[in-house]
Automatic annotation (TrEMBL):
High-level lineage: Eukaryota, Metazoa, Ecdysozoa, Arthropoda, Hexapoda
Native source organism of the sequence: Acyrthosiphon pisum (Pea aphid)
Family annotation (PANTHER family): CHEMOSENSORY PROTEIN-RELATED, GEO07322P1
Keywords: Signal
Annotated signal sequence range: 1-20
Taxonomy, superkingdom: Eukaryota
Protein's name according to its UniProt entry: ACYPI000095 protein
InterPro entries (UniProt xref): A10/PebIII, OS_D_A10/PebIII_sf
Gene that this polypeptide is encoded by: ACYPI000095
């Protein structure tokens, strides 16, 4: 019985730990999206990073790590601030950098799942 109780405690704490981890790190919450979008060469370097065609900053690396999961889960683990930023970047890319956007979605959203959802709200 002692063993069973220990097991329950371990499982319960694992579940709690996982729930507490449900959102992405807020470490980059202050990431200045406008600064990047308004600076063409800076934006290009982020895009190259995401396409594995250039070097990544620490922020670029973090974005690269969460992007596949964020697209798959429709940003379900994003904080509200992250959600707004990602939407802003997506809208900007669709409008102003459509070729890069297509290359990014080809890499990160090969099944077109996210693009379908996006088209709904950018139409
Ligand atoms: C754009 O970003 C690059 C790279 O970080 C930087 O060297 C440059 O000064 C920035 N330009 C402007 C206008 O902020
Ligand atoms: C990436 O960084 C390395 C080392 O700093 C540099 O040699 C290389 O030219 C850079 N590559 C690009 C594509 O900027
Ligand atoms: C496209 O770029 C222009 C100029 O940089 C900018 O003012 C505009 O907001 C961008 N479009 C979107 C949808 O972000």
């Amino acid at each position: 019985m002692v063993h069973l109780n220990l097991f329950v405690v371990v499982v319960a704490s694992l579940v709690c730990f996982t729930l507490a981890q449900e959102k992405y790190s807020t470490k980059y919450e202050n990431f200045d999206v406008d600064k990047v979008l308004n600076n063409d060469s800076l934006l290009t370097s982020y895009i190259n990073c995401l396409l594995d065609e250039g070097n990544c900053t620490e922020e670029g690396q973090a974005l690269k790590r969460i992007l596949p999961d964020a697209l798959k889960t429709n940003c379900g683990k994003c904080t509200d601030a992250q959600k707004l930023k990602i939407e802003k970047i997506m809208k900007f890319l669709i409008k102003n950098r459509s070729i890069d956007f297509d290359r990014l979605t080809a890499k990160y959203d090969p099944s077109g799942e996210y693009k379908k959802k996006l088209e709904k709200f950018s139409a």
